[in-house]
UniProtKB/TrEMBL annotation:
The keyword Nucleus applies. Its main location: nucleus. GO terms for molecular function: bent DNA binding; RNA polymerase III type 3 promoter sequence-specific DNA binding. Signal peptide: none annotated. Belongs to the SNAPC3/SRD2 family. This is snRNA-activating protein complex subunit. The keyword DNA-binding applies. Keywords: DNA-binding, Nucleus, Transcription, Transcription regulation.
């Protein structure tokens, strides 16, 4: 897509937990690198991990079959490596899983009726450096859901909704891009246990919590972490007061 350096892309970022909710929308130039977008994505997990001193600079965006790894920080981890190792070492297993993902009900029925004449292949996954990859270097489909993963396993769907040529009504200062065109109003996090009350505490690396970071109301936090006589049940976690975003 080299001709699309001058394109303006409209890109949507979805919420990591309420996955159907759009969190942000940007106008990005085709000539911009994926890190320029990444640095503008705002996710509460980043802030919580920062506060806990567990901030991890690694991350990747998977667009079609290309892993774009953010390796700018010397301590960043190449998240795609274990996936490539797995693809190499357990090819049959990977192929079977891949077929399950891509084949719908109809294909399953055809397969049952006609046997399996087609030998499917795994896509040729590639890995590139996020900060050296521009949107115009990639092949993508408008409206398809792609993946942004950071802080271990905080996952967001990314959708390239629209693409058009730069025109005179666009903001002329190219340094102003990516331009934020939509931001979800911050909502109070609810307690992940009762799902009723506002969260007042957030824990990180909490051995018995269902999520990481995990949000609790006062009541559920104390029920889960303290015994009736008020002694702490376990100490494998860090806890912070949570004031909503
Ligand atoms: Zn996130
Ligand atoms: Zn609760």
């Amino acid at each position: 897509m080299e001709h699309y350096e001058d394109a303006v892309l409209c890109i949507e970022i979805y919420h990591s937990r309420r996955t159907w909710v759009k969190a942000q929308e940007f106008l990005v130039l085709g000539r911009q690198t994926l890190t320029e977008l990444r640095d503008n994505i705002c996710c509460a997990t980043d802030q919580v991990m920062q506060k806990a001193g567990k901030h991890n600079p690694s991350g990747y965006i998977l667009i079609e079959d290309v892993f774009c790894n953010d390796l700018r920080d010397p301590s960043a981890i190449d998240y795609s490596k274990p996936i490539f190792d797995w693809l190499r070492n357990s090819k049959d297993d990977a192929l079977e899983k891949w077929e399950c993902i891509i084949s719908g009900e109809l294909q399953q029925k055809q397969k049952a009726l006609l046997g399996d004449p087609t030998i499917s292949r795994l896509p040729h996954f590639k890995a590139v450096d996020m900060h050296k990859t521009r949107f115009c270097d990639l092949q993508f489909r408008l409206g398809a859901g792609y993946l942004y993963c950071h802080q271990g396993d905080c996952r967001h769907t990314i959708v390239i909704r629209d693409m058009r040529l730069f025109h005179p009504e666009d903001v002329g200062d190219r340094a102003a891009y990516p331009i934020l065109t939509f931001q979800l109003k911050s909502r109070v996090q609810k307690c992940c246990v009762c799902k009723i009350y506002r969260a007042t505490k957030v824990t990180v690396d909490d051995k018995w919590a269902p999520e990481n970071p995990c949000y609790f109301c006062d009541n559920c936090y104390f029920l889960l972490h303290y015994s009736e006589d008020g002694s702490l049940l376990y100490k494998e976690f860090s806890v912070y007061d949570y004031h909503h975003e």
